Amino acid sequence: MRNLIRVFLAALAIAAIYTFGTGAIAESPKVGDQGKAPEFVNIDHWLNSEPLTMQQLRGKVVLVDFWTYSCINCVNTLPYVKQWHEKYKDQGLVVVGVHTPEFPFEKSTANVQAALKQFDIRYPVAQDNMYGTWSAYRNQYWPATYLIDTTGRIVYQHYGEGRYKETEAEIQRLLAASKTAPAR
């Protein structure tokens, strides 16, 4: 009987992992060339900026941050993303927030604008209500951070909170490499 209970509990644990996942926070960053960064597609509105393209951003280090304003994990990452924007924007880092709604009320441009004001977000934000850019990146979680090198390649990806020192170190590495790379 005890063995049957153990088998049942193990099966239940495995089913829970497959059903609910291991959680974005447990994800380790993916480092290395992951292919060309997709364009921003099917964007409803650009806030804090004119529309941007990856082609325009060539030669810059780009941090793409998938977030939504009512996600507590996303809100917890904002101080770091904002700090990186302020600290490295003059060195060639461009931060682009991609606001992809989880709930219908998050599709409202007025609500997103209010969140930008509330959280004092000054970098460009693309409103991705149709999940076009989300899908192009094959993204699955909020928040998600992608770092793109000066040639337009995704070289770092992290889901969830945490790993802030690792992410910042990668930003610094990419910025340093951009200063020594030959012009293209």
TrEMBL record:
Domain Thioredoxin: 31-176
InterPro entries named in the record: Redoxin, Thioredoxin-like_sf, Thioredoxin_domain, Thioredoxin_ResA/DsbE_sf
Lineage: Bacteria, Pseudomonadati, Pseudomonadota, Betaproteobacteria, Burkholderiales
Name listed for the protein in its UniProt record: Thioredoxin domain-containing protein
Organism the protein comes from: Cupriavidus taiwanensis
UniProt cross-references to PANTHER family, sorted A to Z: PROTEIN DIPZ (PTHR42852:SF13), THIOL:DISULFIDE INTERCHANGE PROTEIN DSBE (PTHR42852)
CDD domains, per the entry: TlpA_like_DipZ_like
Domain of life: Bacteria
One MF annotation (Gene Ontology) recorded for this entry: oxidoreductase activity
Xref: SUPFAM superfamilies: Thioredoxin-like
A Pfam family reported for this protein in Swiss-Prot or TrEMBL: Redoxin
